[in-house]
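S.,

As promised, the iron/sulfur cluster run. Input:
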Amino acid sequence: MSGTSRGPLRKSFVSNGPSFVCVPGLVHRYPDRVLFLVTDFCSTYCRYCTRSRMVNNGKGLPFDRGQWEKAIAYIENSPAVRDVILSGGDPLTLSDEILEWLLSRLRKIRHVEFLRIGTKAPVVLPQRITPALTRMLKRYHPLWISIHFTHPDELTPETTLACDRLADAGIPLGSQTVLLSGINDDLDTMKRLMHGLLKIRVKPYYLYQCDPILGSSHFRTPVGKGLEIIRGLRGYTTGYAVPSYVIDAPGGGGKIPLLPEYIVGRDGDDLLLKNYEGNTYRYPDPGDWIGADRPYNATSRCTGEGGRA
Ligand code: SF4
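Predicted complex:
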């Protein structure tokens, strides 16, 4: 029963802050990318927010040029960092001028190949996505934007226009969705959301298991629910419509992907695989064939039964 995960959270499971904070407001969790927290302000506040302890609580970081300069200096001195994600809070609550100052400073760093912004503004404050904003953003390519979507009802004409403007500015768009009990934790709702996103040129990117945030237990679902939804999408609809289902592991473990079991075992050299309809297939695993006494025959794979030609 889905209610089994909804009891009070055990204290040891409660997320208690980002690890890997190198300078205030900069999280360097993964080898080649950093999360740059540029504001604690949002245009809406989500009870299940993974950073709810810091958004708009008035006792956090200053989020001023002094703090941003320190973060930028860290990035300048970290040649391994090729990808910078502006987040917060919501970076699109900053003025165009401040946002441009940040983007232009980051764009000057030669080893930074790729800039990203995480935002919910196109969904809850779509009028923020003005022609002036998109004209400015397109000067800082390659720039990608991840948009926080929750439900197909958010795909309004205003949000569609906002996403159109961003996509027309050449900005690749991805979605981030948190799996929420009673909101989007059923296949039909999730499929309508994912299909609707593709129609407005947003690629479904991540489906997050709801983090164990204090006060959010009523939103949390068992992991099996998310796996059931992914199983209901994969194979049954367009591959582009299937997001990666992940847990952001408490204690700074990072994102861990969760997949239904498609590998069911091994029989000798054959891998046993289950397809989306539950039928089992054998696959000659090249790891055991190439260079062995039974050489791998690529031709038979391309033209024979089950080949791709
Ligand atoms: S908009 Fe994003 S950062 Fe702001 S409260 Fe919601 S999830 Fe958190």
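The two ends are 45 Å apart (CA to CA). The chain has two domains: 2-257, 263-303.

- D.
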